[in-house]
Amino acid sequence: MTVLQEQEGDTLDAVAARIRSHVVDMCAGPEGGHLGGAFSSADILAALYFSVLNVDPQRPDDPARDRFLLSKGHAAVGLYAALAEKGFFSVGELTGYGRPGSRLMGHPVRAVPGVEMPTGSLGHGLALGCGFALADRYAARDARTFVLLGDGELQEGSVWEAAIAAASLRLDRLVAVVDRNGLQLTGETEGIAPMEPMAERWRSFGWAVRDVDGHDPDGLADHLDAAPWEPGRPSVLIARTVKGQGLPFLAGSSASHYVNLSPRAHARAVRALHTRETTG
């Protein structure tokens, strides 16, 4: 298991569990939040921020840093939890999520330390990632750019325009991660706009592809840390996940997409996460 420097003896599984715990608390606030996608991507975020990304919370604007873009910006509660755990800002600030005066809004904004670009208008993140990767090339920096996309987001044509550009420009320091949970707000992604075989689709656009378990943070870290996988090709990791992973009463359901947990539902979620942590 990967051991974190931030807390001796800690593991990526433990970090992912804390991310989910923070998300549950934020989704019990007055505004609620996009719990399902934040839970499906929690292991991805843990792997990135605590094993892969070259970032320093004390120097969030270091020109040599790796970049991370949450293209599926509606899952901001997950990103905020990861950034707070990493030390970009106090964990205590998470309690103000969605409240008047808080910089922790429903979608990420640059006012939050560690956020590279405002996101949430789906289909824009990969194009932004191309820009960051190209800028690093021109500046002769070895930094990598990682973009987390939702699978429903792949219905946006701009994603595939960016995919073509990235392959044409041979941006092998660009890494996309697809949170492949199979669900979007209105139902199953394959019933709305089929994308399978997804790996072959990305390969046809000139990308190096790996298709993996999205709830194995150590395995995710190994794959992501090894990128680029093929010289001259951008890399895409298709992470097979479950929407709402970790909460039996919401997992695998579109009902988890956006929730405002009542006190009773919040307590039920906390118990479920505690049981999962102690038995897992």
Note down, in words, how this protein is organized:
The protein is an alpha/beta fold and 280 residues long. It has a single domain (12-279), classed as Thiamin diphosphate (ThDP)-binding fold, Pyr/PP domains (Rossmann fold, 3-Layer(aba) Sandwich). The chain contains ten helices and seven strands. It has helices at 12-27, 35-40, 42-52, 76-86, 125-138, 157-168, 189-192, 198-204, 217-226, 263-279; strands spanning 67-70, 145-150, 174-180, 183-184, 187-188, 208-213, 235-240. It has a five-stranded parallel beta sheet, sandwiched between helices. α3 runs parallel beside α4. The longest helix is centred in the last third of the chain and has 17 residues, at 263-279. The chain is globular, with a radius of gyration of 18 Å. The two termini are 14 Å apart. Residues 1-6 have low confidence and may be disordered.
